[in-house]
Design goal:
Pfam families: VWA_CoxE. InterPro entries: UCP010256, Uncharacterised_CoxE, vWFA_dom_sf. Residues 141-187 are annotated as: Disordered. Residues 149-158 have a biased composition (Basic residues). Residues 168-178 have a biased composition (Basic and acidic residues). The protein is an alpha/beta fold and 367 residues long. It has three domains: 2-123, no CATH class; 152-192, no CATH class; 195-366, Rossmann fold (3-Layer(aba) Sandwich). The chain is 44% helix and 14% strand. The chain has 13 helices and nine strands. It has helices at 2-21, 29-37, 44-55, 62-73, 110-123, 131-141, 166-175, 206-222, 248-258, 268-278, 302-315, 336-341, 354-366; strands spanning 150-159, 163-164, 185-192, 195-200, 227-232, 236-238, 289-293, 318-323, 347-350. The strands form two sheets. Strands 6-5-4-7-8-9 form a six-stranded mixed beta sheet, with helices on both faces. Strands 1-3-2 form a three-stranded antiparallel beta sheet. Helix 12 links the parallel strand 8 (318-323) and strand 9. It starts with a helix and ends with a helix. The relative contact order is 0.09.
Length: 367
């Protein structure tokens, strides 16, 4: 029954590929297949345990692993045997039916094609993607590196550099009975800097709002205590509580229940004034990295928008404006809203593709 054995191996290799597409880059087929071979490939629990032991190297990966395993092998109970005819095969973007069953995930023939497909997706305009590509894009957000920006804290910690710690140095001298010893040093410990997302969900931002919310969710998961997320439409809505859900789809669904003004109009100046009055001056924006995600179309008073961005700039450590049109050929920030705000913006960046959105995260981390 060599063909049956080969089908089993192909299914396991496909599962590893699905994990890698979902963001578990450390997953490789060799150890997993060897571990399953020592157990019972028909028993769902054996396959599940073998995969957890060989494919995950971080506890944070387990929710992703569980979700992909349930989707790949079905919802049968643990310990039940799997019916090979009911296994669902999901293929990463760029792989056809023949590719999905052609050996290990490290095959030289597959790697260039897969890398090329992902590279093309990374640089395509989010608004131009079809439904399948949007699903692939949504999975790719989970793999983006996200680090909170750091600031120098007030507390110090022992260090090999920095200023001399007189107290510790004196105690060390006493412990040595007065004999000369090393000069012990200390430096101020870094602390996460707050990040505030202000995301425009008006009608003109409809093709991009989902991607910006997923980006904010990725940022929040990296530093939940120092990240705040708001949407701006006809009203300002704080959606931070909804983003505590680890699964991005569930988090965005919960956020959608909080936001009453999807795809409507927006008055950015009024929304920033509402943010400043209720949140900004009370400490949320003080010393923070503030990321405004908007195309800059202002239906209200452009002068008010300029004044509010200037006030926000005085409170914040850095103001970054991510505009989905910034990276398109021929774009100039001449619209009344963005033109009024630009003098108080530290950096105007593109935000129309996966690659440019990843740069927004990196820019925030370095701020």
């Amino acid at each position: 029954m060599a063909s049956d054995r080969r089908d089993e191996i192909d299914r396991l290799v496909g599962f590893v590929r699905a994990l890698r597409s979902a963001g578990i880059r450390s997953a490789t087929s060799t150890d997993f297949i060897e571990a399953v071979g020592l157990l019972d490939v028909g028993a769902r629990e054996d396959v599940y345990r073998a995969g957890r032991a060989t494919l995950c190297d971080d506890p944070a990966q387990l929710p992703v692993y569980d979700r992909v395993f349930a989707r790949w092998f079905g919802e049968t109970g643990v310990g039940e045997r799997m019916n090979p005819m009911t296994v669902t095969v999901e293929r990463p973007l760029g792989l056809g039916a023949d590719d999905a069953a052609s050996g290990d995930d490290g095959d030289a023939a597959d790697a260039p094609a897969l890398a090329s497909a992902r590279e093309r997706l990374a640089h395509r305009d989010v608004a131009a993607l079809d439904a399948r590509e949007r699903r692939e894009l949504a999975r790719a957000f989970a793999a983006l590196p996200a680090r909170p920006p750091q600031r120098r804290g007030h507390r110090t910690a022992p260090s090999h550099r920095g200023s001399i710690d007189l107290n510790r140095t004196a105690r060390e001298q006493l412990r040595r009975g007065g004999e000369p010893g090393p000069l012990l040093r200390r430096e101020r410990r870094p602390r996460p800097r707050r990040v505030v997302w202000l995301i425009d969900v008006s009608g003109s931002m409809k093709p991009y709002a989902d991607s910006y919310l997923r980006l904010a969710h990725r940022s929040f998961q990296s530093a939940p205590r120092t990240t705040e997320v708001f949407t701006m439409g006809t009203r300002l809505t704080r959606i931070t509580p909804a983003l505590r859900l680890q699964d991005p789809d569930r988090a965005l669904a919960a956020a959608g229940e909080l936001v009453p003004d999807w795809s409507g109009g927006t008055r950015l100046g009024d929304m920033l004034r509402a943010f400043g009055d209720r949140w900004g001056r009370r400490g949320v924006a003080r010393g923070a990295v503030v990321i405004i995600a908007s195309d800059g179309w202002e239906r209200g008073d452009a002068q008010l928008l300029g004044e509010q961005v200037a006030q926000l700039h005085r409170l914040a450590h850095r103001v970054v404006w991510a505009n989905p049109h910034r990276g398109k050929a021929g774009y100039e920030p001449i619209q009344s809203g963005i033109a009024a705000a630009l003098p108080s913006v530290d950096q105007l960046v593109a935000g129309h593709s996966l690659a440019t959105l990843a740069e927004v995260l990196e820019l925030a981390a370095r701020a």
